[in-house]
Amino acid sequence: MGAGDKASAVLDLGAVGLPLRAEDLFGDARPLEVELGCGKGRFAVEWAAAHPEIGLLTVERARVYLEQAAARAVRRGLANVRAVHTTAEDLLFRCLADGSVAAVHVYFPDPWPKKRHLKRRFFRPENVARIAEVLRPDGLLRVKSDHAGYAASIAELLAAEPRLAAAPIEESFAGVPESNFEVKYGREGRVVARLASRRIGG
Ligand SMILES: C[S@@+](CC[C@H](N)C(=O)[O-])C[C@H]1O[C@@H](n2cnc3c(N)ncnc32)[C@H](O)[C@@H]1O
Hints:
CATH superfamily: Vaccinia Virus protein VP39
CATH topology: Rossmann fold
Largest sheet: 8 strands, mixed
Low-confidence stretches: 1-7
Bound molecules: S-adenosylmethionine
Structural class: alpha/beta
């Protein structure tokens, strides 16, 4: 990726083979990590900069944010980030192979607090099951939310997925940088719930 070439951090899903593989995206079989709903990309660039040994695929359905995240990665000169303009569901169900992902990051998924909107929440049984499928054995799912009700519901969904086991929180989040929303919520003094689950088995 050439520094200054904004387009080069954006991965065009129409121009690559599926399923997505680290070898094809990054030139070697490095651990592939995924962030779902990256917003403006603060977490993505800080994490990728701290972990040059991984390849990070970060998806966002809002094009304007996706482009901001991609531009941020280029400004930092990061060769290990690909920003994908699609939905988390499309990435999980169509673009990734079973057992191919070392870590999934989901920070501040939209809580949709109104009762009539609850069905729009990303965390539902089929999406949790698909995350468990794409994670490789021992792979880690990390989630943060400022919405206590949604966090409790996510915790229940994770506990109900037999291929996932709760992982220790402090250890799982050591060195994990703040996302854009976390910085904002930190200033507002909001409590943030953290959840981590590890893929069981081989
Ligand atoms: C509350 S923001 C959090 C952004 C970022 N993770 C952070 O912590 O700063 C939620 C983001 O997820 C994106 N999003 C929501 N549902 C999505 C989906 N199904 N697929 C991809 N992105 C999604 C939204 O467009 C928004 O940018």
